[in-house]
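Dear colleagues,

For the upcoming journal club I promised to circulate an example of a predicted protein-ligand complex. I picked one with magnesium ion because it came up in last month's discussion. The inputs are reproduced below in full, followed by the predicted structure.
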Amino acid sequence: MPSAIEVREVSKRYRSVRALSGVDLKIEQGEFFGLLGPNGAGKTTLISLLAGLARPDAGTLQVMGHDVVHDYRRARSALGVVPQELVFDPFFTVRETLRIQSGYFGLRHNDEWIDQILERLDLAAKADSNMRTLSGGMKRRVLVGQALVHRPPVIILDEPTAGVDVELRQGLWRFIRELNEAGHTIVLTTHYLEEAEALCGRIAMLKQGQVIALDTTRNLLRHVSGVRVRMRLEPDRLPVTLREWHVEREGDSEVLQLPDYAAVEPMLGMLRTGGVRVQELEVMQTDLEDVFVQLMRKS
Amino acid sequence: MDGFLTLLYKELLRFWKVSFQTIAAPILTALLYLLIFSHVLESRVDVFPGVGYKAFLIPGLVMMSLLQNAFANSSSSLIQSKVTGNIVFVLLTPLSPVQMFSAYTLAAVVRGVMVGLGVLLATLPLADLRFAHPVWILVFAVLGGSILGSLGLIAAIWAEKFDQMAAFQNFLVTPLTFLAGVFYSVHSLPEFWLAVSHMNPFFYMVDGFRYGFFGVSDVAPAVSLAIVAAFFLAVAAITLTLLRTGWKLRH
Ligand SMILES: Nc1ncnc2c1ncn2[C@@H]1O[C@H](COP(=O)(O)OP(=O)(O)O)[C@@H](O)[C@H]1O
Ligand SMILES: [Mg+2]
């Protein structure tokens, strides 16, 4: 069984900018995969190369085992892409847009699936409205619909929830999750790290065109070093000896970042010798945000 | 539906939805030309023996409108898609360069022919027009439309902004069509300008097209056909190469 996506030694530069340098990445069929990284990390560039919107300077890319340059027709048929930019064709209605997109892939009678897409994306009422009259969030959902018309085994969404309000975001993710459960491979970039954390089984982090971390979401979260604790103190005064672990003050509490769990005992000791009692203590959940910040600092 | 047919359908629908601008307006423009030029030049310009000036002018105007609108169709469609970014909808699909080329070009031919036909029908009652060789009329109409449709693609692939596109149109397409012997028979020109006219490929499109009506032309129609066909092949080859390499379309 071929991988859903296989990227080997891919580099791409735009004039003086090295958008990607030596990227290797393998995503298996059925995965829900997150592609994260700060602005300018190269996420959209990687997606463009996979979609054939740009050409790599070096390396090869495959979608479902099909080379995106030499076997582009099969590679593109296997791929649905939701572009980051909010683009639309102002000449057409929502339904026309989806029908036309479906036709480009050689699909003749696709109205049943198109109706289903419209329904699931909450666009049924707007089916015959011109694209121009739609709000940003609706246009974004039409883009999602366009990526799905040919039922591609691999679906890539480049920041699909930007500008979509919370309620609709939930609905969108429910739909995408169902597609994933039905066997579609999902690749996602997003700025909302909590979304990635909740949805993605594996995550690659990109920085300056390089993959700096690639692991399951669970492992990434586990490997974030240290323990973060929040404490309310009486008297409200942090001993000088604990300054180096201090992160911030939150309300009437202090937040500390300890190197590991073994440091909890010494910390309590220092508080005791400082004559400070602990009123409340909470070990805080590490989230992807912390992993992200740490990784970006380190590399 | 086959991908090619869909792109063709989309291109047709695109201009048909705004047919007032894309069909009716250019027909009106051509009628104004006819009104003014035939009034001013009727008794002053000698064209073909036995052919009145107005009758002579009509096929020229038909062809000029056809060519300009074929160019306008493919060029405006592609440059708009590029500038607004919705070109990705086409680029993301398995459509091949040949399919893209054929769909855009054929749609340009259809728009050009529709405008040309409109001009012809509207002017028919005004002059005594013959249809000596209808097949030649059709062949030159389709070839001319295809050439300008392809040129429109080249221009829109090259251009990054609307004003670059407009420059291509204003400094190349419009002068070449105007100087293609639409308003006069090139044989009435001084020798130098006659020679210059013969270097303009658009001249052969107009001249061959006119032969289809009157059975008379400045250049033998077979020569015009050979030149126009060769021009088409060259322009098509360039367009296909650009689409294959993805120049300015796929970064
Ligand atoms: N078409 C382009 N022309 C020039 N530079 C580009 C182009 N696309 C991307 N870049 C540059 O490549 C780098 C990566 O960009 P991008 O892939 O969009 O990052 P991300 O999607 O992770 O925010 C950035 O420095 C960006 O400025
Ligand atoms: Mg991006």
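Two points we might discuss: Residues 18 and 206 of chain A are 13 Å apart (CA to CA). The pocket of magnesium ion (ligand 2) is lined by residues A 43-44, 84, 158 (CB under 6 Å).

See you all on Thursday,
B. R.
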